[in-house]
Amino acid sequence: MNPKPIRFLLNGVEVQAAVEPRLHAIDFLREHYELSSPRVGCEHGACGACTIRVDGQIVRGCLLLAVRLDGRKVETLEGLCATGEIADLQQAFHERNAMQCGYCTSGMLMASEEYLQTSTTWSREGIREHLSGNYCRCTGYEAIVDAVAKVAVTRGLKMQEHTS
Ligand code: FES
Ligand code: FES
Question: What are the structural domains, with CATH classification, of the chain?
Answer without folding.
Answer: 4-80 (3.10.20.30), 86-157 (1.10.150.120)
